Amino acid sequence: MLPRLRPLPIKERLSILFLERGRLDVKDGAFVLIDKEGVRTHVPVGGVACLMLEPGIRISHAAAVLAARAGTLLVWVGEAGVRLYSAGQPGGARSDKLLYQASLALDPDARLAVVRRMFARRFGEEPPSRRSVDQLRGIEGARVRAMYAMLAQSYRVKWSGRRYDPKEWGSGDLANRCLSSATACLYGLAEAAILAAGYAPAVGFLHTGRPLSFVYDIADIYKFDTVVPVAFKVAARGGSDPEGEVRRGCRDAFCQTRLLERIIPEIEEILKAGGKEPPAPFAEAQGPVFEEEAGGDAGHRG
Questions:
Q1: Domain positions in the chain
Q2: From CA 66, how far away is CA 62, in angstroms rounded?
Q3: What sections of the chain are H helices per DSSP?
Q4: Dist. CA 117–CA 274, nearest whole Å
Q5: What totals of helices (H) and strands (E) does the chain contain, helices first?
Q6: Which CATH number fits domain 95-272: 1.20.5.440, 1.20.120.920, 3.40.50.10300, 2.30.110.10?
């Protein structure tokens, strides 16, 4: 029997590592990226929370198995994480984190505390006291509409409100199409961070009832600091490929601000506002973790 693999806790790992243009494989028991010239670059898979696989990456079955046993999330994304296409182990491998998140969302007082922390983080001030979640949602909506109008005026973009039909992409005006493209980029990034941290994208607090409710909660915190200005800047300039320009602008903004690395610890801090004890790191969890047997895959028992 081989030794157990006990993954490092998220807080002790490098949050995100982007890989592009190469083949991921396992050589001599190590995780390696092999480029077209055959040069090997070792990847510390057990010390990374999430590997972002950009265009040009191929991955072997052995590499996927090793990543799963090391507790490293694999996420297939567009360039610089601008789009999220698929993820291994959706929802994370932490049932204790999923239960923690659900317990906060189902407790009215804890949910309100989390929503208030999100509001404070987004607007830089404490929300009004004695307000329900629905009332805070209304206050937030009014502020967001005002911020859109202010930015549109600043960039001299014609603006009649946030109006778009997801089923009819061409039905929106240029500013709305740019905004839709920009927010899609941010949602992909936020979903990757949520999955890497071991939480569920569907279990939200301010937003509820949608597959990406928690993604919208987290993404909204950063929206006006990152992608919305990019969208208005591109809309003001026009051009033959505004949506493409928006995606590239968002990619650059994410890289410059190291946004993905900042989101994961932010999620933990926001959820702590609910007043419940967070799960212990993996290394402190009780019971066997990823026990590997010679001649068979971990987790398969007769």
A1: 10-93, 95-272
A2: 6
A3: 61-70, 95-106, 108-123, 133-154, 174-196, 213-222, 227-237, 242-257, 259-272
A4: 9
A5: 9, 8
A6: 1.20.120.920
Both tokens assigned to 216: 């919208």
- What's the full length of the chain, in residues? 302
User: In what helix (H) or strand (E) does residue 22 lie, and over which residues does it extend?
Assistant: strand 22-27
CATH 3.40.50.2300 corresponds to the domain 10-93: no
Taking only the tens place, the pLDDT of each residue in 51-87 is 888 899 999 999 988 888 887 878 888 876 667 788 7
What does the pLDDT look like over 139-155, one tens digit per residue? 999 999 999 999 999 99
Joined together, the tokens standing for residue 249 give 């602008």
Q: What tokens appear for 111 in the block?
A: 């949910």
Question: In this structure, how many other beta carbons lie within 10 angstroms of the beta carbon of residue 187?
Answer: 21
Burial of 256 (0-12, 13-18, 19+ CB in 10 A): exposed
- Chain-centroid distance of CA 129 in Å reads 30
Q: Would you say the pTM of this structure is higher than 0.85? A: no
CA atoms of 157 and 153, how far apart (whole Å): 6
